[in-house]
Design goal:
By secondary structure, the protein is an alpha/beta fold. It folds into two domains: 11-104 and 117-243 and 349-360, Alkaline Phosphatase, subunit A (3-Layer(aba) Sandwich), CATH 3.40.720.10; 245-343, 2-Layer Sandwich (Gyrase A, domain 2), CATH 3.30.1360.110. It has 16 helices and 18 strands. A hairpin with a 3-residue loop joins strand 12 and strand 13. Helix 1 packs parallel to helix 5 and helix 10 (195-203) runs antiparallel to helix 11. The termini are far apart.
Length: 361
């Protein structure tokens, strides 16, 4: 099965348009519709709001067509592969593909630590070892649009959930209030919120709490827009969507585990396998026998092009191991049991399509 990802109509072009609006070029072009919209409205302030996991499938499931978010959805675009936060938010902030940044998934195997590290925390996924603060960022540095703009003489800032040291916000209300305040003194704001993703991991995509949360966002965002300064452009996107998943506990599969030289990495629906010498064919045959209806198993060289165009980061190839399994059903492969009900990072359209929502004052 041949897998191909759309990088021509993606969040990379949206990022490219935002960089371009401030006279900075990216390597993957721009979104012509967003370019036209920005030129038409000539905003003095631009806010890029990324709501984690608020994909098209979630909006369509929980909001009516005449809701604020859906009625202002200009079009659907693709995120990057895999559709997951580490890869997609880094791609959006940098304007670079996952292949270029090396930010490919939640956890990646670092040979120098002989451990699978959670990129955001520099902490072992399975070992729980806490490595030096900022280790992953130092090994895989990726530019961020707000930093680039500041370096070029523009006033820019970012706003984050409560775990951040930079403009932390404990609630969505706090986030919106901080955005209104900082929008008056900045030409550009990047705003990120992760609550919805966490809730869907716990409850799935259909639970009433998800419907209530999405509708609350819709109502509060409409009210928030009335408080923004004149000549403000609000661009709302997501990094991915979510689907309800089934779980297979991989560590209980002794036949496959004994052929691995390290534990699986990346994601539960896009999995990097490091296979022992002499076991590659046996591993492929057994994996396809087990999961051929649920995953496409690619040699890491075949998988490389899924992670995007551009000059490949020197670490990317090593992070892909020997094989990459890409989810094409609702199954996820968990090395250890987890409590996820909803998840992402596979190849389903429901996971990868995100909205481009545009509003201006």
């Amino acid at each position: 099965m041949k897998l191909k990802w759309d990088y021509e109509h993606s969040i990379l072009q949206v990022s490219g348009s935002l960089y371009s609006w401030y006279g900075i070029q990216c390597g993957h072009g721009t979104d012509p519709d967003l370019d036209t919209w920005l030129r038409k409205n000539e905003p003095g302030h631009v806010i890029a709001l990324l709501i984690d996991a608020m994909g098209v499938s979630i909006l369509e499931k929980h909001l009516p067509e005449d809701s604020f978010l859906r009625s202002n959805m200009h079009k659907q675009i693709s995120t990057v592969f895999p559709p997951t936060t580490a890869a997609a938010t880094t791609a959006f902030m940098s304007g670079m593909s996952p292949a270029e940044t090396g930010w490919l998934g939640w956890n990646q195997y670092f040979a120098e630590k002989d451990d699978e590290l959670i990129l955001f925390f520099s902490q072992g996924q399975y070992s729980n070892v806490q490595y030096e603060k900022g280790f992953c960022d130092s090994v895989l540095p990726a530019r961020k649009i707000f930093d680039v703009l500041n370096e070029n003489g523009r006033e820019a800032d970012s706003i984050w959930p409560g775990w951040s040291e930079i403009n932390p916000c404990k609630t969505f209300d706090d986030l919106l209030a901080r955005t209104v305040s900082l929008s008056r003194e900045n030409e550009f704001l990047y705003v990120y919120w992760d609550e919805l993703d966490t809730l869907m991991h716990r409850h799935g995509t259909d639970d009433e709490i998800i419907r209530e949360t999405v509708r609350e966002y819709d109502r509060k965002l409409q009210e928030f827009c009335n408080e923004l300064p004149d000549k403000t452009a609000l661009v709302i996107i997501a990094d991915h969507s979510q689907v309800n998943t089934r779980m297979y506990v991989f560590e209980e599969d002794d036949e496959l585990i004994r052929m691995l030289q390290s534990r699986p990495a990346l994601e539960q629906r896009t999995v990097a396998f490091y296979v022992k010498d002499g076991c590659r064919k046996q591993f492929r045959d057994l994996f396809e026998e087990r999961f051929g209806d649920d995953f496409v198993l690619l040699d890491s060289n075949e998988a490389m092009e899924l992670f995007g165009p551009g000059e490949i980061c020197g670490r990317t190839r090593g992070f892909l191991g020997d094989y990459v399994a890409v989810g094409i059903s609702d199954l996820e492969l968990d090395y250890m049991p987890r409590s996820h009900i909803g998840n992402h990072a596979g190849f389903l359209e429901e996971e990868r399509m995100v909205p481009l929502i545009l509003w201006h004052s």
